[in-house]
Amino acid sequence: MAQAIFLEKGFYIEDPTTEFERALKDAPFRTLYEQGFSSETVNSDVSVAYLFNLAQEFVSALKKRWRN
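The chain above was modelled as a monomer; its predicted structure follows.
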């Protein structure tokens, strides 16, 4: 199971095993943006799940702001 290693200016995915984790390592911000529109859940380390949930909350906030 991969872990997200948080750095001062981003993060690094260590030992990716799933398709999502590999995509997150290869194109982190694009993957997070795309997953932000997903209603799926992720079964990963808590650090990776945190990034996934953060992306979904970000898109949710954008949608709310757009509606108002």
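The mean pLDDT is 90.
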